[in-house]
Structure formats: C-alpha cells, structure tokens
User: Which sequence fits this backbone?
C-alpha cells in the first residue's frame, strides 16, 4: 500500500480519536448541560413535538415492557417526556401521567399536544438524575428510548435509581430502556489515553468505557454486559424482574420492581 494512503488512514483515525476526547474533558454536570443545550434548540423541540412523531404512539419494544404490568392504570412518572409521544399513548390507556423534562419548552409542547388530543397530563421541569418528587407517589416510572443511558457516571445513575425507588409505591414498577452495545466490552490503548486526558484536564474522572457523545449531540453510556446494568438497578434498591437484550439491537430493556414492604408489626 502507498505510504500516502497509510498516512491518510492514520490521520483519519487520529481525527476520530481526537474527537472522542470531547467526552472526557467535560465533568458530569457539563455532560448533562451539553445534552440539554442540544435538546433546548427550537428545531429539536419542534422535531420531538411534531404531529407525525407524537401520533406514532408506542413502539413494539415499549409495548413489550408494558406487557409486564398487571394493569394500565395508576400514577405514572415519565422521565424525558419530549413532545408527549408516549405520555399521550399512556394517558389514553388509563394512566395518570406526569412527564418530566429539563427543557421547559418540551414540557409545554407535551401538555399542549395532549390537550389538543383530548387528554390531560401533568408536567415537571427537572433534570432526571436529580429527581425531586413526592415519596411513594407513583405506581410506575417510565424511561424509554435508551434515555437511562443519558446520565453520566455509574454513581449518578445509581443515585437516580435510588430517587426513582423512593418515588415508587411499594410493589411499583420501573420500566427502563438503555443503550446496549456489547462491543464496548473491550478496553484498549484509546481507552487508557482517554482516562489520562480526563485526569490531565480534571474532566470526567469517572469516565467509563462505553461513554460517548452520540451523533456529537448528546451524552450516552453504552452498556456492554447484563451484569453492569443489573448491578446499577439493584444498587439503587430495585429488583430486576426481567431484562431484554439482543445482539442485533442497540436498545435494551429492563422491568424492575420496588419490593413490597412487609409490615413488621401488623397488629399495631
Ligand atoms: C430522545 S428524546 C425522547 C422524547 C420522548 N420520550 C419520545 O420518545 O418521544 C429525550 C427527551 O429527554 C429529555 N432529557 C434528556 N436528558 C434529560 C435529563 N438528564 N433530564 C431531563 N430530561 C432529559 C430531552 O430534553 C428530550 O425531551
């Protein structure tokens, strides 16, 4: 092979590597802000609130998760509501839905879209890993479209699950989708160098293999093993009832449950 072709290939790889450093120079709060700025752009709000998308309803993999529930009534907290696609479908099924989003315009558009379709939903403007809602107020917490993976660092995700567990009633369900890619199992020289750059720039010191700026627009952590996702969900205090992962799909799903509290003193 010509030396110039080899040089060109090396430069392309170097370019990819330099771009991959963007995810480590930001601290976890910066990574959240990076993604928030993307979603906050008017064209993105419009994209997620657009009629065709909103009316497309629930996807097959979301319906599969929903099938684990004994019924479709009760209070449901939806994390990352966007323009209301799932919120409206779930409200039509009988849930009382509260949608959470860190972009106020998304919450507004979700409520408007619901009202235009004759259903009512509540809205909260919050960052989902710092969720502050009433304890034991929900029967179901829902996060779809791999959005569990939008939170950087294992510690912050486990803390998010703790907050979700606190929000659930005993016996309540957490239905969750995460980004799944077993290829990230391997760590190599690139991963080592990213850690060095994170340390030198005092960036994300808790950087993990699988962290990326997906499409250069938002933070996503790809899970590469079932043990890792299960240990996070259980570390946050929930029991994993079932897990759906497929080599051919980048979306994994989990059905989790908050334990039914055993009344220690039934006669009191
Ligand atoms: C991929 S869109 C999905 C929207 C909607 N769930 C749907 O499927 O149509 C993700 C949504 O989650 C919101 N979001 C992402 N990360 C968030 C975070 N850390 N806290 C709160 N909202 C977040 C975004 O603003 C956006 O509205």
Assistant:
């Amino acid at each position: 092979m010509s030396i110039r072709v080899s040089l060109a290939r090396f430069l392309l790889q170097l370019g990819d590597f330099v771009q991959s450093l963007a995810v480590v120079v930001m601290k976890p709060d910066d990574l959240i802000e990076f993604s928030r700025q993307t979603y906050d752009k008017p064209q993105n709000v419009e994209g997620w609130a657009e009629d065709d998308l909103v009316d497309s309803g629930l996807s097959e993999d979301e319906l599969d998760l929903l099938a684990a529930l004994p019924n479709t009534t009760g209070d449901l907290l939806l994390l990352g509501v966007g323009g209301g696609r799932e919120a409206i479908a779930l409200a039509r099924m009988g849930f009382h839905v509260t949608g959470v989003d860190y972009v106020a315009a998304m919450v507004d558009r979700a409520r408007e879209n619901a009202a235009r379709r004759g259903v009512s939903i509540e809205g909260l403007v919050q960052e989902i890993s710092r969720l502050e809602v009433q304890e034991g107020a929900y029967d179901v917490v829902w996060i779809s479209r791999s959005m569990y993976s939008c939170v950087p660092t294992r510690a912050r995700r486990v803390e998010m699950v703790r907050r979700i567990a606190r929000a659930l009633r005993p016996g309540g369900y957490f239905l969750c989708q995460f980004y799944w890619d077993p290829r990230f199992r391997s760590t190599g020289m690139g991963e080592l160098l990213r850690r060095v750059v994170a340390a030198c720039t005092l960036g994300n010191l808790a950087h993990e293999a699988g962290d990326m700026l997906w499409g250069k627009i938002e933070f996503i952590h790809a899970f590469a093993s079932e043990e890792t996702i299960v240990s996070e969900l259980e570390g946050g205090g929930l029991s994993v009832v079932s897990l759906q992962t497929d080599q051919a799909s980048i979306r994994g799903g989990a059905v989790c449950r908050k334990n039914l509290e055993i009344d220690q003193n039934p006669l009191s």
In short: The radius of gyration is 20 Å. Residues 32, 35, 39, 48, 80-82, 85-86, 101-103, 106, 127-129, 144-145, 147, 150-151 surround S-adenosylmethionine (CB under 6 Å).
